[in-house]
Sequence to fold (307 residues):
Amino acid sequence: MPLRLIFMGTPDFSVPTLLELVAHGHEIAAVYTRAPKPGGRRGLQLQPTPVEEAAGKLGVPVLTPKTLKTPEALEEFRAFDADAAVVVAYGMILPQAILDAPKLGCYNLHASLLPRWRGAAPINRAIMAGDAESGVMVMKMDVGLDTGDVAMAERLAITDNMTALDLHDRLSRLGADLMVRAMAALARGGLQLKQQSEDGVTYAAKIDKAEARIDWTRPAREVLRHIHGLSPFPGAWAELENARVKILRCELAKGTGAPGEVLDDHLTIACGEGAIRLIELQREGKARMQAADFLRGVPLKTGAKFT
Fold:
């Protein structure tokens, strides 16, 4: 039995869930997303969010309120008479009155294995912390920060070659399928909820650009996970010959030397323990490029140093 849903989401991560809900016959009464922001070449054009663009192609009404805390916003939300709301990276706090408005509640897709990595940047933090796995969970929302009861989950191994973008894309597709299954169970009255454990709670703080500088004194795997956890944005960086270079992809390699030292002509760089080989880089003001292309423009001798 299809449900009448309000969908609330903003970035690329949210779009597959919206599309899958529509493909499985659910009625999307309205889409809530963040307001367009200035962008484009000169930063003057208002750029709709990826969710707004997707909703426009589907012909679904789109709302971009600045707040949901006013009586007018609540009245407008209630007027859609939705069975439930689906929330995927919306980026705005839902007050209790909004959470209580849909008949069957509001359900959030979160990109971690709760209660680990509640908060804003679970994908980045899982990689940076060296976690062996991540996943997606559907939870019934309450007013806490990702504290609601969990309904369903899917797990995914994190490998050393995964960047934040790689994991983002895998979890986005996995999450879309999970939410569709959750809404099917909700429609037939079979969605079971389980309270989150109070053990193992961690918080995924928003990424601060001050974290992006690479510390070559750390062990090689920690350096790799730091680089991949920040790739492609904001991008982990180091200085080379007084110029900033972002490193976007790398792999573990053999070798020893002073931290940051170039060990060979294949961009193997020494860490505090072990070494990494750089695969993809981006010079300041330039496009991203493969290591071989980088070396053609910036020939480096053994013994040069990233700082």
In short: The helical segments are 15-23, 50-58, 71-79, 96-100, 122-128, 164-187, 220-229, 291-297. DSSP finds eight helices and 16 strands in the chain.
